[in-house]
Amino acid sequence: MPFSPNPYAALRSAARYVRQFRRKTFVVLLDGTxxxxxxxxxxxxxxxxxxxxxxxxxxxxxxASPELDTPFDTGSPITGRLRTDLLTDLQAAGxxxxxxxxxxxxxxxxxPMHAGTSGDIESVDTRLLQHLRSGEYxxxxxxxxxxxxxxxHNASADTVASLLAVALGAEKLFFLLTTPGLLRDASNPNSxxxxxxxxxxxxxxxxxxxxxxxxxKAHAIRxxxxxxxxxxxxxxxxxxxxxxxxxxxxxxxxxxVVRESPARGAGGST
Length: 270
Fold this sequence. Notes:
By secondary structure, the protein is an alpha/beta fold. The chain has helices spanning 7-21, 32-36, 38-53, 77-92, 127-134, 157-167, 198-206, 215-226, 242-248; strands spanning 25-30, 57-62, 97-101, 108-110, 121-124, 138-142, 144-146, 152-154, 172-177, 195-197, 231-236, 255-258.
């Protein structure tokens, strides 16, 4: 259900969630398609800006644009431009952001492999993130990791977002996608599942219902929830204000995944 046309009613309804989530950490992963489209990217940044204005503490992780052949190419001018555009749009939305990668200050360390390949993350050091957050800056993290040999590796943005959410004790982890959420039928966008447990997720995966980029997210979701993150949300990055609706309304807009299924109390509150 969308926000009420009465602005005061909408404010009263949202106020309970503003109070509940004030000073809480939300990790938000932006899908490559979202950051690659200027209109969608700006809309996502404006929503993150509103979270920030309400004293919610976002940490942004971004994957690469589908324009790239590799998950993330540090030498690509396309990647560099899109990253700069993302930071610029966040700044325009009032977010005092700082761009960094997992290589900075040893934030993410990978097992030694061939340089430029995807590497498994073996440790997370959040001291730099905590330092930035204590100064009221919002970290924007690229999914790269260094190994002890000095090589740099691509890492799964899903994995990075999940690891950071656990390490930071995040209240929520959001995946902004090109789909409206988790679907019972991948071919039917209206078959959205508003609430799912880890058991539901496993059953959908077993049935082959997790298609496309949702399948690799299942492991990241499981790791986040088992690591203490309150809930994981699969939300559209293409529908207007879907992130805000998920956080600040009782019905939500996408799919909330929790360890075990209670009655869904809110799109963002449970």
